[in-house]
Specification:
Layout (H helix, E strand, L loop, with lengths): L1 H4 L1 H18 L5 E6 L2 E5 L6 H16 L2 E3 L2 E3 L4 E4 L9 H17 L4 E4 L2 H23 L3 E9 L5 E9 L1 E2 L3 E2 L2 H11 L2 H23 L4 E5 L2 H4 L4 H12 L6 E6 H6 L2 H12 L3 E7 L7 H5 L4 E4 L1 H5 L5 H16 L3 E4 L5 H9 L4 E2 L10 H9 L3 H9 L6
Parallel strand pairs: 5-6, 8-11, 11-12, 12-13, 13-14, 14-15, 15-16
Antiparallel strand pairs: 1-2, 3-4, 7-8, 7-16, 9-10
Bound molecules: ligand C2E and calcium ion (2 copies).
Ligand C2E binds next to β8, α6 and β13.
């Protein structure tokens, strides 16, 4: 709210929330603001857990009511974590820590809910804490690597470009997949330095490959919504391109659909400034965050990536075929390139190619490989090795 509507509105919302909290509890109970958007309510001894749950439900209901501020109608989404003393801790530090873990569980569950602390939450929060520590050390030690997955022209089977994917092999726990640590990097703010490293490295490595092989290869880099919300993001992109010597037109930024739908005017502004640099923009996981297509006409997008979940059943399931075909048609009518990801079988590929999908990416062609592996693939011509395998694919799906 601070970002999209201004600090005075943010402050006013906090004041109203505080009033509503006070109104929902008894006089003897304590309401305090911990900072940011976090509040603590301490109930005077309750005789049963259900009594505390009742109060929490009342708070949820009150806080969920719309707020009228001038001519703005706003809504907050409260997430409540509940601890009972002494069951969930017998000292202040433990109780606060556990309430925090329970609150995060409520948030991750989609918000607007109450979550009672459990020991699994303590374990999950311990695991997050451990990974955060490992992340910090790995950043300092530059222990991350990038892998690159070729994106192939569906008609000619030529490699058009690659998607950069982070790869983290830890001495302590082996390979930790990005789905596990990227959310933790986001929650802890570590995504900022990490994201910058990813972009700088991808630009540098791919430019290195381009010059040494004399190839015109594009690179797509995944960008977290948090990075896009930063005012300095376009400047950072400019700097990475300049340091690497990579032409702006050879870089594409991949963002998921959600950010465009929720993103305020600042996000869209950042988007336009990045596009003005000549960098391409691609909508990742297209179709999964669907809630309206208006943004497609308002934003300077170049590519849509059909999510793997639609590709998975595209050879057999009529509904998935309909969705995939519709996305391809929609993309083309908006003059966008359509890329399908997670293509694993010849039948999936044949269907997508026959519907006019522009580019494909997936294990059928290549898994993500380290830079040296990508050099070998490109030096060997890339295309020829796949040709025999895919030539055998019948048409007419
Ligand atoms: P994504 O952007 O949708 O990336 C595609 C994921 O699908 C990658 O998983 C890739 O290895 C996997 N994949 C590609 N082809 C196939 C296939 O044919 N079959 C199967 N089963 N999987 C395939 P990965 O590397 O585990 O990345 C997962 C997610 O983590 C990415 O999804 C992306 O959202 C995030 N991520 C990865 N690297 C980065 C990064 O550098 N920065 C940011 N912000 N997020 C990243
Ligand atoms: Ca992606
Ligand atoms: Ca994706």
């Amino acid at each position: 709210m601070n970002e999209s509507l201004g600090h005075h509105i943010g402050d006013e919302v906090l004041r109203i929330v505080a009033d509503r909290l006070k109104a929902a509890v008894r006089h003897a109970d304590l309401v305090a603001r911990m900072g940011g958007d976090e509040f603590v309510v301490v109930l005077d001894p309750v005789s049963q857990d259900s009594e505390a749950e009742l109060v929490a439900a009342k708070i949820l209901a009150r806080l969920s009511e719309d707020l009228q501020l001038g001519n703005q109608r706003l809504r907050v989404t409260p997430s409540i974590g509940m601890v009972i003393c002494p069951d969930d801790g017998d000292n202040l530090a433990d109780l606060l820590k556990n309430a925090d873990a329970a609150m995060y569980a409520a948030k991750r569950g989609g918000g607007a809910q109450l979550s009672r602390f459990s020991s699994e939450m303590a374990e999950a929060s311990m695991a997050r804490f451990t990974i955060e520590g490992l992340l910090r050390r790995a950043l300092a030690a530059q222990a991350f690597r990038l892998r690159y997955q070729p994106i192939v022209d569906a008609a000619t089977l030529r490699i058009l470009g690659v998607e950069a994917l982070i790869h983290w092999d830890t001495p302590e726990r082996g390979v930790i997949p990005p789905a596990e640590f990227i959310p933790i990097a986001e929650e802890s703010g570590l995504i900022m330095p990490l994201g910058e490293w990813i972009l700088a490295t991808a630009c540098r490595e791919i430019q290195q490959l381009r010059t040494s092989l004399g190839l015109d290869l594009e690179v797509a880099v995944n960008i977290s919504p948090l990075q896009l919300r930063q005012a300095g993001f376009p400047a950072m992109v400019t700097q990475c391109l300049a340091a690497a010597g990579l032409p702006a037109a050879s870089l594409t930024i991949e963002v998921t659909e959600g950010i465009l739908i929720e993103g305020g005017s600042k996000t869209i502004d950042t988007f336009e400034r990045v596009r003005a640099l000549g960098v391409g923009l691609s909508i990742d996981d297209f179709g999964t965050g669907y809630s309206g297509l208006n943004y497609l006409t308002r934003l300077p997008i170049d590519k849509l990536k059909i999510d793997k979940s639609f590709v998975d059943d595209v050879a057999h399931d009529e509904h998935h075929q309909a969705v995939a075909s519709a996305i391809i048609t929609l993309g083309h009518q908006l003059h966008l390139q359509v890329v399908a990801e997670g293509v694993e079988s010849p039948a999936q590929f044949a269907f997508l190619r026959d519907r006019g999908c522009d580019a494909v990416q997936g294990y059928l062609f290549w898994q993500p490989v380290p830079l040296a592996g990508l050099m070998e693939i490109c030096a060997a011509g890339g295309k020829a090795t796949m040709h025999a395998k895919v030539q055998a694919v019948p048409t007419g799906y």
